[in-house]
Specification:
The structure is a homodimer of 246-residue chains. Chain A is of the alpha/beta class. Chain A contains ten helices and five strands; from the N terminus they run H-H-H-H-E-H-E-H-H-E-H-E-H-E-H. In chain A, strands 2-1-3-4-5 form a five-stranded parallel beta sheet, with helices on both faces. In chain A, helix 5 links the parallel strand 1 and strand 2. Chain A is globular and about 45 Å long. At the A-B interface, helix 8 and helix 9 of A face helix 8 and helix 9 of B.
Amino acid sequence: MDPLTQLGGWGISRRAVLQGMAATWAAVTGGFTLNGRYQTAWAREQATSSPSETQPATLRVLGIGGSLRAGSYNRGLLRAAQELTPAPHTLEIADLSALPLYNPDVEAQGFPPAVAGLRTAAAIADALLFATPEYYRSIPGALKNAIDWLGRPPNSPLARKPYAVLGATTADLGTVRAQLQLREILLSFDLPVVQRPEVFISNADGKFDEQGSLLDPASRQAVQDLVAALLVLTEQLQQSWPPARA
Amino acid sequence: MDPLTQLGGWGISRRAVLQGMAATWAAVTGGFTLNGRYQTAWAREQATSSPSETQPATLRVLGIGGSLRAGSYNRGLLRAAQELTPAPHTLEIADLSALPLYNPDVEAQGFPPAVAGLRTAAAIADALLFATPEYYRSIPGALKNAIDWLGRPPNSPLARKPYAVLGATTADLGTVRAQLQLREILLSFDLPVVQRPEVFISNADGKFDEQGSLLDPASRQAVQDLVAALLVLTEQLQQSWPPARA
């Protein structure tokens, strides 16, 4: 017998288990280090449980990268996250390059097409994953500009959207200052956030190949753990929060 | 006799006085509240001292506003600052609306015209005055984007540029969170900054007229004091720092 089914029947009481996890979230998130424990439990559950009651929802994550550079390491992080997102969940990568600078006078004429497209992509997503470089102790203006557009009423697509943050840099410190400013900015929307793992990729030029694909095993594991944590948090919240997209 | 000339002869020892001010800058900046004391001293000096030795340098300030809205209150603050800049000093207002989003691939082809124009305007300025709204606990993406372009080598026009910050909002809290994030961002460039006065304009819709001109007397005094403090700091530094623009 799968030891997981001894938890009062994992296939039946998965909701109860998740509610229990909610009560001890601080302890649970301590498990999302580099061992992939919950990732494994998640995959095992999908393989052994009956579809009717226990198939997890198919979750859509929108990846938002802060750098517009074609060979961006942070887009490489999002591609790695895409590869490491367990089926049936999916991760799409947004494109910020066509967004105009936010201007209330422009907004008053209606959202420009690139803005409307990004807002739709965010609206249909269940969760957001931000991958940011650090430009001058903060996130790029291009990323803040995207948030300036995404946050606007009516029906901001950021509402009730769980998110996670990671970042890569060729320098030291792993984008920690940018991530701190980003978390502070996103406090504006009262969003649930993955607190652990924190993923800071320093010296990125030694961890990606020339095509910008993430090779470093420890970094890949951290990305995998972060995606898993984001999926668990999202599903957990959707137990009590019917998704806004109905 | 003007009491100021009793300071060992203000007209002759102005440099010594400024050096003394440098040593006690924290104390001096305490004077820049709403009483306009140093503003008054500055104007009096110009009126009473001989031009050959004591005429202050003509300083150029570049005003950079964070909002692209035509009727922006923060542009209104910059226009007020322009009116309240004592001759012979001048304040020009930058336009950020034509800047593309920062992209290293674009930069590799050379600075686009709007970027080159802004960099030149900053390079010939002696000091910078940032007027920012608060968008989601930070500065607008458009303003961060301008900094992303201005900071780039070679010869970043931010080098050794004293600056000051102020901001207006229709909400409460006077843009304090945006100003804090901006100050943190600008730490990247090791720039001298005016610490006092801090100028936080809340409930802006009651303090500007319909054309976006600043009417509120206390706010105008605060803007005037801030400009005066920025000019004093700039001139003080130029005593020891020959300006980079030679």
